[in-house]
Specification:
The chain is an alpha+beta fold. It has three domains: 35-133, PAS domain (Beta-Lactamase, 2-Layer Sandwich), CATH 3.30.450; 135-215, Helix Hairpins (Orthogonal Bundle); 219-387, 2-Layer Sandwich (Heat Shock Protein 90). Helix content is 40%, strand content 20%. The protein has helices at residues 25-34, 53-58, 72-75, 80-89, 135-181, 186-213, 225-239, 262-280, 325-328, 346-356, and strands at 38-43, 48-51, 99-102, 109-118, 124-133, 221-223, 246-251, 258-260, 285-292, 311-318, 360-365, 371-378. α7 crosses α8 and α8 (262-280) runs antiparallel to α10. It binds adenosine-5'-triphosphate (ATP) and magnesium ion. Residues 275-276, 279, 318, 320-321, 323, 327, 331, 336-339, 342-348, 371 line the site of adenosine-5'-triphosphate.
Amino acid sequence: MTDGPHRRRDSAAAGDFETGPLVGDRFFRHIVLGMRNGVLVVTRDRRLAMMNEVAYRILDITPGDADIGRPYADVLASQPDMIRILTAAFDLAHLPNRAELRLKPSGKVIGYTLSQIMDDEGGSEGAAVFFKDLTLVEQMEERERLRDRLASLGEMAATIAHEVKNPLAGIEVMAGLLRRRVADIPDAQALLNDIIGEAKTANAIVLEVLEFVRPIRLQVEQTSMAQVLHDAVTMAERKVDRGGVEVTMNIEPQLPLIKADPHQLGQLFSNLLINSLEALDGRGLIGLTAAVGRAYEEPAAGSDERAPGATLVVEVADDGPGVSPEAVERIFNPFFSTKPQGSGLGLAIVRKIVDAHDGHIDVETAPGQGTRFRVTLPVNSGEEWLR
Ligand SMILES: Nc1ncnc2c1ncn2[C@@H]1O[C@H](COP(=O)(O)OP(=O)(O)OP(=O)(O)O)[C@@H](O)[C@H]1O
Ligand SMILES: [Mg+2]
């Protein structure tokens, strides 16, 4: 390469670029290849000029020795969307500075910037795309959006619940008074009992809604999962008759204590157990297991930003009717219920409690195949390995 007219020449580290004598071609290469973004550079004749490690990783492509210089359509064959973006770069007058793309089939979301590479005469020599895996950011934003949605839904529900609570209490009290007045009319007594019963049910729903919309304030303490699960079983059995259902518990000995709110966790697991008991309707098996988190695998998002820490994995499984694929998408939504008397808040509360503990919940189910909820909670304390 020839020196530019304004070029200063230093004897030691003469560079090939016009930007100064200290940095050379190799230095620039290292800057580009070492970037923590994905970097992909192609030439005007549609060949791959440069692709860094991050780019290979985000795009799930195994680096090949002869990749550089090959037509990029070959190297990127598994990522047709990326090929499309690069090809368009040569035709577009205005290149997107901040755009997003969902890669198929991995479902990863990338944010990218496209730029053209110009030669000295201002002609287009190639194109470069810089990109970052936004999957985790996206997931966080989604959670945030859900939280916002729940918050406004919650405010509305709370207002309605408050308004309804007083008249309901009124109905209950007045029906009670009336019942005393008609002590000698059995028919009227029966009707009034029904009215009181219904008002009580409505009140219970209102309380549940209020409970749901209240933000969770965790009372964190060193918590024994074994104790939580025993309490949860007792609580669930108080709410739903167990009938002939067999509940087995398999709790790994020497589970670490976790930093958590034992009452909230009790509610979480009793909600899951209540659902299983209701699904089984007096017949079947429920298996409760708790173990240190070796069963937990990080989602294969290819990101190294969240190293798996110590976790506790608790599973609640039943051999009941299972959930259809259409319904399973919605079971965590507030007010989704397939039960005539269900408020549909059980699993929404479960999710809220899991979120508050920075945990993770997933479900495996299919019609006729039973249902298995898996809750993964961070341990947060490495010291105490006691029960
Ligand atoms: N173990 C399970 N087996 C089969 N279906 C389930 C199970 N757990 C949940 N579901 C389905 O998910 C729906 C939502 O559950 P959720 O606990 O949120 O509400 P609900 O049980 O209907 O009402 P609530 O818990 O407020 O009384 C249920 O109506 C049911 O269809
Ligand atoms: Mg429920």
